[in-house]
């Protein structure tokens, strides 16, 4: 037990050190990161208008800290996922180990896809609607750096998390907690849940933004059903082959 605790502590320390190093690097490049993240906002503001404001002496510093930590967490994700894998590896069977790498690659790819969809499509639509709503009422947008970063980080993290749905469903299927048939039978309920989540995560009431999130999520759900059904067939074949050898 103590050996496992020591190993866990060692891997946690390694992951933390990587996160600290990446934070320092990302903090140094925070102005460039902010310039990139501002693009969806700059595109919807009147030409020449200041994009972001700060209202307190600590606002910019805290924004840089927030940017550095958020970016470092995303970039170092493969490292600490690898550390988790190496810690769990001795306890896994050979047939279980073959799923680990696809899970890691799939998790990272899906998360990045969700973040990219949010940045390139949802954010511009949402900001255009929200700022347009204010300007139609004769008001001038004064957007603080803190409010803007809180909004986009929450939305990006939310979209990335929602895109992890296939990973969660496949994992539950491998643990024999759900089946493809169960998902098919509850498809209507899942579609309603997807629409509700899309309405919550997209800050605009327009159907375009909501459907831009709901449709990819629904397609990922349907893809999960196909993948789980395929895995179940492969598992049944392995069980049948093992049983025939036993005979």
Tell me what you see in this structure.
The protein is mostly helical. It has two domains: 1-158, no CATH class; 164-241, no CATH class. 80% of the residues lie in helices and 0% in strands. It has helices at residues 2-28, 30-37, 39-42, 59-75, 77-88, 94-97, 100-136, 145-162, 165-174, 180-185, 187-201, 207-246. The chain is flat, with a radius of gyration of 22 Å. The model has no long low-confidence stretch (mean pLDDT 86).
Question: What is the alpha-carbon Rg in Å?
Answer: 22 Å
Please estimate the helix content.
Answer: over 70%
Low-confidence stretches: none
The shape is flat
Query: What percentage of amino acids are in beta strands?
Result: under 5%
What is the typical, i.e. mean, pLDDT?
Answer: 86
Main beta sheet strand tally, sense and closure: none
The domain count comes to 2
SSE order = HHHHHHHHHHHH
The CA-CA distance between the termini, in Å, is: 39 Å
Structural class of the helices, strands and pairings?
A: mainly alpha
Strands, total number: 0
Number of helices: 12
Summarize the structure.
The protein is 80% helix and 0% strand. By secondary structure, it is an all-alpha fold.
Q: Would you spell out the secondary-structure blueprint of this structure?
A:
Layout: H1 2-28, H2 30-37, H3 39-42, H4 59-75, H5 77-88, H6 94-97, H7 100-136, H8 145-162, H9 165-174, H10 180-185, H11 187-201, H12 207-246
Notable characteristics:
247 residues, mainly alpha, 2 domains
């Amino acid at each position: 037990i103590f050996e496992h605790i020591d190993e866990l502590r060692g891997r946690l320390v390694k992951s933390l050190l990587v996160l600290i190093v990446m934070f320092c690097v990302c903090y140094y490049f925070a102005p460039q990161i902010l310039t990139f993240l501002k693009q969806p906002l700059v595109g919807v503001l009147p030409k020449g208008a200041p994009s972001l404001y700060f209202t307190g002496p600590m606002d910019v510093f805290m924004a840089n800290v927030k940017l550095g930590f958020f970016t470092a967490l995303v970039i170092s994700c493969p490292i600490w996922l690898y550390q988790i894998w190496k810690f769990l590896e001795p306890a896994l069977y050979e047939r279980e180990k073959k799923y680990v790498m696809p899970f890691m690659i799939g998790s990272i790819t899906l998360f990045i896809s969700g973040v990219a969809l949010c940045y390139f499509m949802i954010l511009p639509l949402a900001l255009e609607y929200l700022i347009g709503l204010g300007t139609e009422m004769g008001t001038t947008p004064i957007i603080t750096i803190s409010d803007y970063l809180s909004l986009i980080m929450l939305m990006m993290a939310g979209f990335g998390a929602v895109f992890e749905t296939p990973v969660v469903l496949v994992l539950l299927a491998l643990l024999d907690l759900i089946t493809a048939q169960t998902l098919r039978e509850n498809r209507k309920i899942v579609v309603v849940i997807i629409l509700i989540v899309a309405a919550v995560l997209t800050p605009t009431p327009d159907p375009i933004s909501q459907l831009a999130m709901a449709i990819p999520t629904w397609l990922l759900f349907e893809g999960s059903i196909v993948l789980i059904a395929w895995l179940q067939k492969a598992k049944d074949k392995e069980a049948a082959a093992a049983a025939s050898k036993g005979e």
